Structures are given as C-alpha cells and as structure tokens.
Amino acid sequence: MTQGLCRFCKTCLKHTFVDLGMSPLSNAYVEEEKLNSVEKFYPLHAYVCEQCLLVQLEEFESPDRIFSDYAYFSSYSDSWLHHAKQYTELMVERFDLGRESQIIEIASNDGYLLQFFQTKGISVLGIEPAANVAQVAESKGIPTLVKFFGVQTGQELVQQGKQADVLLGNNVLAHVPDINDFVAGIKLVLKPEGILTMEFPHLLQLMERNQFDTIYHEHFSYLSFRTVDAIFASHGITLFDVEELPTHGGSLRIYGKHQENQTLPICDSPTEDSSRRIQNLKDKETQAGLDKIEVYSQFGSRTMETKRKLLSFLIEAKSSGKTIVGYGAPAKGNTLLNYCGIRTDFLDYTCDRSPHKQGLFLPGTHIPIFHPNKIAETKPDYVLILPWNLKEEICDQLSYIREWGGKFIVPIPRVEILE
C-alpha cells in the first residue's frame, strides 16, 4: 500500500524497510503524575524510496512538538565531548581557522562543541530549536538562536550579515522532515568559500550491525552516502571528502562546498586521498547492495530474530530469580524496549547521568529513571546497556558491579553478556 511521498524526490513510497509496530515519541518522557494519562503511540514503519533509496519514516508529529522542549543534553557524555574537542582541533588545523573565522552550528544543543571553538577566540553562533537546551548554552556564554533551520532562517541570517566560514551539524540531518528546505538553507548561509561538515549515522552500519533501535520518530531519514551525495548535489553543494567514524555505532562525516567554489579557502583542495575515500565508500555501499531495492527488504527479518533472542534471555534470567536493571534512557533504548515489549516485568528500573531525565519514566514502558547511584544500592545481577554505542564508557563507569558478580547485557547487534 502506498504511504505518502518520498521527502526528497517525491516518489510514492511503497516498499517497507522495517515495521517496528506502534511506539510513542522516544523522547516524550513521562512525569509521575501523568502515568495514568493517555499516551500517544504512532506507527514506527520505515519505508525505502525505490527511486533515490532514501530510507524514511512518515511524519506524524511536527518538529515543534518533538524538539521544542528536549530532554537530550550532549554534555553528559564524556566520550562525545572528547569527540567534539577532537573535531575542533582538526578543523582549526586543516582549514587554518582563526579569530576572523565565523563558526555556525545547526542543532548546537547545550554548546557542547562550540565551547571549544570559543576558547580559541573564534566567533561562534549556535542555532537550536529547543529553548530549554539553548538556555544552557547561553548560560555558558555561547550565543544561540532559538529557531528551526531552513530557508527562512537562512535568509534571516544573510540579511543580518551572518554567514559561515564553517557551517556544521552533528546528528541533525536525519532529524529534519523537509530535507530539501534544510539543505537549501545551508546553501544560503555558507560563505562562497565556506566549508560544510555534517555527521550522521551511516545507513550501511545500521543495516550491517542490526541497529534497528536507532529508528525512532525523531529520525525522519536514514542516510547512505550515495543518497546524501545526491541530495546535496541537487542543491548546488559538492561533497569533496568523507570520513567514517565510530560514533553512534558507525557514522559519516561529510565535507561540502559550493559547486561554484573551484578552490577551497586555504590550500587544502580535494586531494587524491579524499577522492579515494569517497570512491572507496561508494564501492563499499555498492558491494553491500545499497543500490538494490531488494536488499533493503531483507532487514526486517533480522530485527525479529534479535527481539526473540533478547526476550528469551530475559525470560530465562528472570525465571532463575535474577534481577535486571537498565543503564541509560536514550531514544534508541525506548525503541528497543517498546518493540520488544520490555517493561518493569523485566527491568526494575533504568538510570541516567542526566538530571533532566531522573525522576521521570520512559515513554510507553513507564520504567522509572533514577540516578546511577541506584545500581550500587540495589546490586542487580545484570545491567542492560541501552546506549550500546557508549558501552566501553559505561562499563568503565560501572566497573564496580563486578564486586558482587554483576554482568552487563549489550543488546545490539546481538545479545552479548560482558563480565
């Protein structure tokens, strides 16, 4: 059955990528006094466009509803802060950035990244639609515009004389329902010789590593390099380099410039190495079958197998009298728990370092969220790591559970027990 039009090329969508049933918004955490109120669930059904091969969800809620008051604050992950600092050092060195440069970040969150440019005396501007998150950035002295980004915001910035030498966005490209408007806005705000960088989870890694839990309503699109390259090219932006990153289970960092820009601003024009990286990545995606619609339809069966294996382990553990708790309250965790039907009958609670989530309950499953100290108090037999992409960081932080024989459960790409 046809389900709307592709958000990029407007082709009718009729091919299923994966159907994860019904789920609430993954960042719609529930207050205790609202636990008995009606909670909205929406289809979590991803389609793939037969024309451009963009994997995508239908839009059921507006970005205003999803992002205006947001529970995710980037600064609570030590490894993500380290990643942001490394990025800053790389960009300053590669493109010779200095006090005359203007850095603009789209979806700048709580200033987790711009703070590192600012300490170098480089002018920064954040654009962040969630007012509660932007307020934290402002408190750090990072100027932040509370707006959604697109053509309208781009035009306003240009009228104010604000354009970027470096325009960046980490984990935002997947979050925009109108991807054409978003990229057209980028075209406006980027200076004639400016550099664009964007990071986003790589669809190839999602498929090969069975990362179905990264599918949730806040992510409208799931992106391969071939599709992203086509989207940016259609708006006059050339991708001249790409890096494969380990973040979020496997991401890409793309580098873009205006098609009219024949030379990069310094001396770092596209090299044989960058051209080779792009071609190697295109070849890798082709070898994996990402140019064939049939390959996408095979993904759903793997998610069902993972669900069965995780539930089988949890049932056996609980039947043996074991106690199990969660660690983290990430959006991906809420997809996993709701799809698998895991509630307080399996997990006593979960915990999170962010005080903005503590005292709330997970959407759909209503599992309570506590401070991580709760683990030392209750001494569970197993800790299910929901943000599995941070498993090394979390295992290090919670290494003390081994004192009473506690073990970690990592659910993705397959159920794994870490002692």
TrEMBL record:
Q: Which SUPFAM superfamilies match?
A: S-adenosyl-L-methionine-dependent methyltransferases (SSF53335)
Pfam families in the record: Methyltransf_13 (PF08421), Methyltransf_14 (PF08484), Methyltransf_23 (PF13489)
- Keywords in alphabetical order, please: Methyltransferase, Transferase
Where the record annotates domain C-methyltransferase, the positions are 246-413
Q: Alphabetically, which GO biological process terms does the record hold?
A: methylation
Instruction: Please tell me which top-level EC class this enzyme sits in.
Output: transferase
One molecular function GO term is: methyltransferase activity
**Enzyme Commission code:** 2.1.1.-
**Signal sequence region:** none
Provide the Methyltransferase putative zinc binding domain boundaries: 6-67
Report what the protein is called.
Class I SAM-dependent methyltransferase
Task: Record the organism.
Answer: Tumidithrix elongata BACA0141
Lineage, opening ranks:
Bacteria, Bacillati, Cyanobacteriota, Cyanophyceae, Pseudanabaenales
